Amino acid sequence: MTPWDSFFHEKITLIFEQKKDIIDIGGGLRISDTQGNRYDPRRAWIKKYLAAVNYKILDPVPDYHPDIIGDIHRMPLDDASADAIICIAVLEHIENPFKAFEEMERVLKKGGYCFLYVPFLYYYHAQPGYYGDFWRYTEDSLKYLSRNFSSLEIQKVRGPLETWIHLSPLGRFTLLNLIARTADTWLKKQKSRQTSGYYVFLVK
User: Fold this and answer.
1) Residue 26's closest CA among 15, 34, 35?
2) Report field, pTM of the whole predicted structure over 0.85
3) 180-198 burial: b if 16+ Cβ within 10 Å, else e
4) Average pLDDT score over residue span 195-204
5) C-alpha distances in angstroms, 118 versus 87, 97, 195, 198?
6) 175 or 34, which is more confident?
C-alpha cells in the first residue's frame, strides 16, 4: 500500500469509527452506486460503517440524487452541526476556496474532522454545465486556508516521476506507474514538492 493510500485508509477509518454526523461534499468518497456521478468499488470496504453513522452527500444540483442540495459557499447547515466533513476533488472546481474553508469550519463541531483531497499538478478537468476547473493547491496555500483549524496533516499523492507518468498517456499502464514510483523511492524524491496532489486531514 502506498503512503497516500495508507493515509486515506487511516483517516477515513478514523472518521467513520469516531464520528456520527458525516457530510460528504460532492459525494467524492464514491461509495454509493445510486448517488453521485461515479462509484468506486475499491472503496466498498467503507460501506460496513454506514449503518452506524448519519452519512449524507451534499451537492449543488439534484442530478446525482444527493441527500442535501446546497452550495459549499453557503451550505444549508447549522453552525457546529457536523462531526466530520469529507471533501474530495471538489475545491479545484469552486469559485471561492476562502469562503469554502470558512463554511466547512463553521459547520463542523469543535473537535470535528475534515478530510480533503486537492490537486497540484493535474490536467484540466471541468465538466461543462456542471462545474469549472479553477484552482490548483500548494502546501503553502493549504496551510493558509486551514489556519483557523487546530491541527493540519498533509500527505502528498505520488512523487514527481510517477506524477509525470500519471499525467501522460503512459499513465494508463499500471506497470509504468509502479516503475516510476519505485524510481521516486530510489532517487529519494519523497520530499519533492512536485506531486499530483494532497490529502489533507484537519481538526477544528
Assistant:
1) 35
2) yes
3) bbeebeeeebeeeeebbbb
4) 97
5) 9, 11, 11, 5
6) 175
Q: Which three cell numbers stand for residue 4?
A: 497516500
Average pLDDT along the chain: 94
Q: Does residue 37 have a pLDDT over 80?
A: no
Cβ pair 26, 58 in contact under 8 A: yes
Surface-to-core class of residue 7, CB atoms within 10 Å of its CB (0-12 exposed, 13-18 middle, 19+ buried): buried
What residues have CB less than 8 Å from 19, skipping those under 6 apart? Answer: 53, 83, 84, 112, 113
CATH numbers and ranges of domains, the chain: 3-159+196-203 (3.40.50.150)
In the predicted structure, residue 25 carries a pLDDT above the cut 80: yes
What is the rounded radius of gyration, in angstroms, for the C-alpha atoms of the chain? 17
CA atoms within 13 A on the CB side of 36: 19
Nearest Cα residue to 80 out of 52, 103, 56: 103
